[in-house]
Specification:
single chain, alpha/beta, Rossmann fold, formyl-coa transferase, domain 3, 2 domains, 19 helices
């Protein structure tokens, strides 16, 4: 690849006001901050609830830090008229506003797109919610586990497991991560279109749509049930754990048979076509496991990958983070707070000329309140002190 001369941050100068909490919204705005946007996170006096979540290191939640590094923190009590007024003034000056409250909350606060766009028609405004802004379920509360169940994801996932009646449990918040990625992409589309039209627009991101849209095969099978259940690649036992072998193409399969010592299987009619292979899936897995079970996962992976057969041993997250490939790509960024260090993920994409990386700063709650109000709204220190006495930054700040 020909080296490209760096051109600075892709989103430098972009003003973002972030009214989000927990995961889907914060992950979206962190991606914006990674690309150089000035993200101002508006927090209640008690802060984003994730600030208290373990793991804790250096006096902060590294879970919170991984989703909010690189942002400035402003505390405003939106339960006060002055808090709402200041939030509105900050939002009106922004290029992008992102929120992930239940539909209707921002309108009650006077911070909805329609209200703000009357003063700033260039505003790009993204709302992330469980079921979207309209429809019969729009007002129902929803967190990622509920969306996983409602979308069919959990039942589809369980359907691929063998010997389990209870739907598989899942502690990974897929809905939130997908929603964040979709919101981030939609914001970029709106900004590109704004460059042409001069006008912003409203973005409605549904976590339900995000997950259901991921079930590509399953949606088609739901409409047109296949005669035979879909076969999926399954873990096979190794001498010290499990491995995944995915011999997808016929070339992969033939190479696999050579490695595992069954070259005769290349002409076995049971595996001659995709349909026959799927019809004889247990027999195929039996051949593979007869070989893998006699070797360590690392030996299986090395031998099969060398032959061009996709294979990996099952690893822990810690083992995956230690993979030399992860280091070679610079995927992990090291942050520091209170004398302690920890790693967070960078974005999974790289641009040749504009950097995207986690910013090292993790703001304390309300750390930038005075700075942002002076910079954006031109408030004097005496004005900010008066607001503090009024409780705009919370009762503790007022005291």
């Amino acid at each position: 690849m020909t080296p490209t001369r760096p051109r600075g941050d892709a989103l430098a100068g972009l003003r973002v006001v972030d009214f989000t909490i927990v995961m889907s919204g914060p992950m979206c705005t962190r991606l914006l901050a990674d690309a150089g946007a000035d993200v101002v996170k508006i927090e209640p006096p008690d802060g984003d609830v994730v600030r208290q979540r373990e793991p804790l290191r250096g006096g902060i939640s590294t879970y919170y830090a991984s989703m909010n590094c690189g942002k400035r923190s402003v505390v405003l009590d939106l339960g006060t008229a002055e808090g709402r007024r200041i939030a509105r003034e900050l939002a009106v000056q922004a290029d992008v506003v992102v929120e992930n409250f239940r539909p209707g909350v921002m309108k009650r606060l006077g911070l909805d797109h329609e209200t703000l766009a009357r003063e700033n028609p260039r505003l790009v405004y993204a709302s992330i919610s469980g079921f979207g802004q309209g429809g019969p379920r729009a007002m129902t509360p929803a967190y990622a586990p509920v969306i996983h169940a409602a979308s069919g994801y959990e039942m589809a996932h369980s359907g691929y497991q063998r010997g389990s009646e209870r739907p598989a449990n899942n502690g990974i918040f897929i809905a939130d991560v997908l929603g964040a990625a979709n919101a981030f992409g939609a914001v970029q589309l709106a900004l590109v279109e704004r460059a042409r039209s001069g006008l912003g627009q409203y973005i409605d991101v549904s976590l339900m749509d995000s997950v259901l849209g991921m079930l590509i095969y399953e949606m088609q099978a739901a409409q047109f049930p296949p005669e035979r259940a879909r076969q999926v690649y399954e873990p096979v036992r190794a001498g010290d754990g499990w491995v995944m072998v995915a011999a997808v193409t016929q070339k992969n399969l033939e190479a696999l048979f050579d490695v595992i010592g069954h070259p005769e299987a290349k002409t076995d009619p049971r595996f001659a076509t995709v349909a026959e292979k799927e019809a004889n899936w247990p027999a195929l897995l039996g051949l593979i496991e007869g070989w893998t079970s006699q070797r360590s996962g690392a030996e299986c992976e090395a031998a099969l990958m060398a032959a061009g057969v996709p294979c990996s041993r099952y690893r822990s997250v810690a083992e995956a983070m230690a993979d030399p490939q992860v280091a070679a790509r610079g995927f992990l960024a090291e942050l520091e707070h209170g004398g302690a260090t920890f790693k967070v993920a960078n974005a999974p994409f790289k641009l040749s000329a504009t950097p995207t990386a986690a910013r090292r700063d993790v703001a304390a709650l309300g750390e930038h309140t005075a700075e942002v109000l002076q910079e954006r709204l031109g408030l004097a220190p005496s004005d900010i002190a008066a607001l503090r006495r009024q409780g705009v930054f919370g009762a503790a700040a007022a005291a």
